[in-house]
Design brief:
With about 160 residues, the protein is an alpha/beta fold. It contains seven helices and four strands; from the N terminus they run βαβααβααβαα.
């Protein structure tokens, strides 16, 4: 599950990118969803700039805004936060240590993370160019995540990111 604040910019973009990358990698047994930590946009379609930039890159959008609740931990094996604030909000909702270990920032899978885990900045309210930069970051991190799934290193990446929290 990909998670941002309102579930209309970053997390639906990450969901769309991840769905396509998994499909292209032949990993059809992975389900991807998205949610936001706030209830601002429950039931809303993704932001028009996010959709326009994503569709221009060949991504499809089928989700609507949803709010992350503690029960989502039961449905997800991995909860991918877009930034440190989303990560903190998710960890506050974790009911057990098992819930908490599922939470990691998507940027943990990005290239060039030797200096720490990268945040995907929120483009809401910014011009379209911010959405292009957002997709560039998400695509890089998702490619790293798919490689980690393929080579079985997801847990190692998550554990390493946890030590950098």
């Amino acid at each position: 599950m990909t998670v941002c604040l309102g579930n209309i910019c970053r997390s639906p973009a990450a969901e769309a990118v991840l769905v396509r990358e998994l499909e292209e990698a032949g990993l059809s047994d992975v389900t991807v969803t998205s949610a936001g930590t706030a209830d601002y946009h429950v039931g809303s379609r993704p932001h028009h700039h996010s959709v326009a930039e994503g569709e221009g890159r060949g991504y499809a959008f089928g989700s609507v805004g949803a709010q992350f609740v503690a029960d989502h931990f039961e449905e997800a094996d991995l909860v991918l936060a877009m930034d440190s604030a989303n990560e903190a909000d998710l960890l506050a909702l974790a009911r057990t240590p098992g819930d908490a270990v599922k939470v990691v920032r998507l940027g943990a899978f990005a290239s060039g993370t030797d200096g720490g885990v990268l945040d995907v900045p929120d483009p809401w309210g910014l011009p379209r160019e911010a959405y292009a930069r957002m997709y560039d970051q998400i695509e890089d991190a998702v490619q790293g995540l798919v490689r980690a799934i393929q080579d079985g290193t997801v847990r190692e990446v998550v554990a390493a990111a946890r030590t950098r929290r």
